[in-house]
Design goal:
Number of helices: 4
Largest sheet: none
Helix content: 55-70%
Number of strands: 0
Radius of gyration: 16 Å
Order of helices and strands: HHHH
Structural class: mainly alpha
Length: 102
Amino acid sequence: MRDGTEKPFPDIQRQRQDYESYLNGLRQSCNPGDLPPLLHGRQDENPPGHRGFQCWGNLTLLGLIGHVVGDTFRSNDAWERAVTETANEIAAYKIRCPCACN
C-alpha cells in the first residue's frame, strides 16, 4: 500500500466471516485431509499472535519477532484452550466420521 502496488486488505469482519465459513466447511467433512487444517485453525485462535483475527500484512521485522515470541511463549491459559479445542474437534470428528478413524 505504501507505493500503491498492493491491494488494501478487505474488511476484517468479512475476513473473519469467510474464515469461520472455511472452518465450518472443514468441520462438516469426513475427509481425513481436512482435519489438520481445521485443528490448526482452531489452535491459532489462542496464542496472542493470532488472537482477535489480527492482520499481519506488511509485517515489519520487529512485528514478526513479536508474533513468533507470542506464539512460542503463549500463556498456560492459551495452551490449555488450544489443547481442549483440539480434543473437542477430534472427538466430534470421531463421532461424525466413525469409518475414518479405523
